[in-house]
Design goal:
The protein has 308 residues and is an alpha+beta fold. Helix content is 57%, strand content 10%. It has helices spanning 3-24, 29-52, 55-58, 61-71, 79-86, 88-101, 128-146, 163-181, 201-210, 215-226, 239-247, 250-259, 282-295; strands at 110-116, 119-125, 186-191, 265-268, 271-276, 306-307. Strands 4-5-3-6 form a four-stranded antiparallel beta sheet, sandwiched between helices. A hairpin with a 2-residue loop joins strand 4 (265-268) and strand 5. It is globular and about 65 Å long.
Length: 308
């Protein structure tokens, strides 16, 4: 029995038990529909994971060679990049063998401080050998498996979206609010304090299991965290770290959209906005939002949170 049959059999058994329990017990139709939706979501997760494949399907010579070429774009003036590209053919074969055998060792990142628009950030720049593995893992595993879990308004660092996309959605939400309520109502703007440095590894590892990918791929993603040698926090400058943090607040995003029912809401990385109708108490919404963020181990910056 291979990985795909184990995943399918375990999830189908779980879905069957959920459906049987809901059918046999005297519960409401709403709970049965909820159980059916959950079972369907699990089936879709399994289908996406099977489409991605296991470690040998993701890491092939052709894919790694192509992503290695992309790692050189824009930085070919560096001597290390020139040496990397000059030995890309043999180096890719060597790293591919190490990844498939599970003996690949991550190198230490180059740390430096970057000051941008008055904001000081600590950057961890990985070696270009590691960047080749990072880019392959991000594009072939994290992006196709994480993206269906995100709300549509989450547009940071995603192809076809970005900052202008998020601005256009904010403009659309404001236009809809003005047409329905005029100038009445409220907007809550908020910001997460230490979004990257305070990331909890337990949630990230839970996301690795939640997407139902192959165990070897999950172990490889966990090894990136273990190589940081830190109790918490994801570094800036590593490509998988960006994708991990885009998906990190997905549980909070769904709480805002579904439980709070605020359709005029969105965020760009850790910057949130929520449009509140005039018949709803914004202070109560803010308290629920902060409590949900704490449950998901996100720290809300009170000095940057305002009701307008």
């Amino acid at each position: 029995r291979d990985w795909s049959s184990d995943v399918c059999s375990s999830d189908l058994m779980q879905n069957t038990n959920i459906t049987q329990n809901c059918t046999s017990s005297r519960i409401s139709r709403r709970k049965r529909r909820y159980a059916n939706r959950m079972a369907e979501r699990e089936r879709r997760k399994v289908a996406r994971a099977l489409k991605v494949g296991d470690l040998s399907d993701v890491f092939t010579f052709d894919k790694m060679y192509a992503y290695g070429k992309k790692c050189c774009n824009g930085v070919r003036w560096k001597n290390s990049v020139q040496r990397f590209e000059g030995h890309l053919f043999s180096g890719t074969a060597k790293r591919l063998k190490q990844v498939l055998s599970g003996i690949y060792k991550w190198e230490k990142c180059n740390k430096f401080v970057l000051s941008e628009r008055g904001k000081t950030r600590n950057i961890d720049a990985p070696h270009i050998h590691d960047r080749q593995i990072h880019k392959t893992l991000t594009k072939e595993v994290l992006l196709p498996l994480y993206r269906p879990l995100l709300i549509w308004n989450n547009g940071a660092s995603l192809e076809g979206k970005g900052l202008e996309f998020s601005r256009s959605l904010l403009k659309r939400d404001l236009t809809r609010h003005f047409r329905k309520y005029g100038l009445n109502g409220y907007i809550i703007i908020s910001d997460c304090s230490g979004f990257f440095p305070n990331a909890d590894y337990s949630i990230i590892r839970h996301n690795h299991r939640r997407i139902k990918c192959a165990p070897q791929l999950s172990n490889l993603m966990d090894s990136i965290i273990e190589a940081l040698h830190s109790p918490q926090g994801m570094p800036l400058g590593i490509e998988p770290s960006q994708m991990e943090m885009i998906c990190y607040p997905s549980m909070l995003d769904n709480y805002i959209k579904c439980q709070l029912g605020l359709h005029g809401a969105g965020h760009y990385m850790d910057d949130y906005y929520m449009l509140v109708p005039p018949d709803i108490d914004p202070h109560e919404v803010l308290d629920k939002f902060i409590a949900a963020a704490q449950t998901n181990k996100l720290i809300i910056g009170r000095h940057k949170t305002h009701i307008i």
